[in-house]
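User: My advisor, Dr. K., asked me to get a structural model of this assembly before our group meeting. I'm new to this, so sorry if the format is off. These are the inputs:
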Amino acid sequence: MAMETPPRWDRKMQQRLAAGEAAALGEFYDRFASLVHSLAHRVLDDDAAADQVTREVFGYIWENPDDYDPKQGNMRSWVARLTQRQAVHRLRQAEATAYAETGQGSAEELEQKVRRAHVAARAEHIVTSMPAPLRAALELAYFQRRDYRQTAADLGVTEDEARRRLRLGLQLLSSANTRPLEGSSPPGGYGRTL
Amino acid sequence: MTGANGDADDVARAPWIPGPRRSADDHADLTADPTPVTPPAPTAPAPPMPPEVPETGAEADEPPDVPQLTHRVLKSLLGAWALSACSAGETKAVEDHLTECAPCAEEALRLRDAVALLHEDRDLDLDPLLRSRVLENCLGRRPARVPVPEWVTPYDAETARLDALLRDIGESEWHAPVRLKWYEDDHLVRRKTTVAGVIGHLLAVDGLVSSALGIKDPLGAGVPELSPTERTEAFWSALDRPPNRALRGPWRDQTHTLIRTVSFAGRGVGDLTVTYKDFALPLRDSLLERAFECWLHADDIANAVAYPYAPPSGAHLHGMIDLAARLLPAALAGRRRSGLAAPARHLVAAGAPGRSLHLEVEGAGGGHWYIALDSPAAVGSPDRAVAQVAMDGVEFCQLVAGHISPEEAAAGQDGDREAIRDVLSAAASLSRL
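Assistant: The format is fine. Below is the predicted structure of the whole assembly, which you can bring to the meeting.
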């Protein structure tokens, strides 16, 4: 569905953002806004808070497009990491405020939410970086609700191959759940809050 | 996966018995698969928890035909099973197998948990107004070196909204029937197409603006000057199969290229002439007109696929109404020449206030407009208003788009009935394919 291959699109987009092109900012928003908003919403479970994180993440990227390092992965997973980091930052802040005011909420609950956020960001990274044929098969079976025979027909592959792709895609994705947790710092070298 | 057919066939050839579960060590040969995904099952009988039953078409009172499958096939079905993407019979076969094969059961659980990690980015859950707020915040933090001109923002916003809608609709919805309607010679005309056909129409007519800017025309090089309708018909008939979702890319790419080109073009580009064969508009109005068309056709599409779709923001709606109001005196004059409108009553010197109709638009984007009745050269004036029409902004746009008739329009009318009828008919006559 992508209109241009990601690495090329990513590089060009970074250059255009760095050049201060407002039209590029609009295109960038259109491509990633739903990713940012939905990831933030999964962590914070609140519309207004997710809106706020969306504003902060895009503001940060517009001000710091050079922070993106194509060697560390595609732009989509960079955006996902920044979002997850900012959303977790907001979550900790909100929980600390709530605790100070009401004495409610526990450290374990917070850590559980943070862990879920990490898993979600890892899953996002896995889905966006898995081989395109696997992603296409998952997309058809999950999002378009096609069964594996229809998926095979849509992709022009054998039913055997469609089953294989669905299984392999899910095996890759499941590593988001089983990989050891790396504390609170997400993968990649983007170590600071926005 | 390298198959282990020989090993597994023993199990598969056995008749399916819905009876007691067999423990894992009853068929240790299964774990001898050369490429196990999980460590071999423990020899201790440890029947794993069966995963939650996925939704399938299986009827409770009518058990599905359960096929006899080899272990290799059953294992290969685990992904499809976890996604609820196999037949009822296969689902049952997999689930029966899971009660007797620990490695498969373990993997099945893992894959099912992985499905929960998939999630849909649904653009429709995003508030469309968030876009302008986010972009504004960005530009406040770091001003653009190459800004998007103010008069392009309605086109930018409307194309982004339509694209978000298109992203969320399924393959089959691209073929949903859409009935386009507009006014021609004071009669309602209808034309049947599909969602994809509408995108083809927008792509073809936006191409008018592209060619004015020297950008690649979607109709190809060397196309003679065509009206929007002719361009659309030419585009549709040049397709070798019914239009489908593949048109989204070219349409969106062209909108992006237009916005980008105009941003880089610098001052003065807004006055560039865009010709529509029978008439012409300066680029700034042309892109406003394209934003208007984009919204109304997005609304047609949304209706066809039963999605909600809101009108543009108040500021953008205001600009669209203003453009129609500015076009009305010339449309009236044209109708007068064809005998479709009453003759002029009081001709005044160019630039002087003339007889006017007071158009009061209520709601977001509303305001007051004074339409000169006798000549496009006259200036509309409150002092010389002979009639008043009050309408809702969206309703006025629906009239201009030919979606409602002049008779259906106008909640409140007051004054010269002939003037009112002529202006409302002229408004409907602005519509076209």
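One thing worth pointing out at the meeting: Chain B touches chain A through 57 residues (CB under 8 Å).

User: Perfect, thanks a lot.
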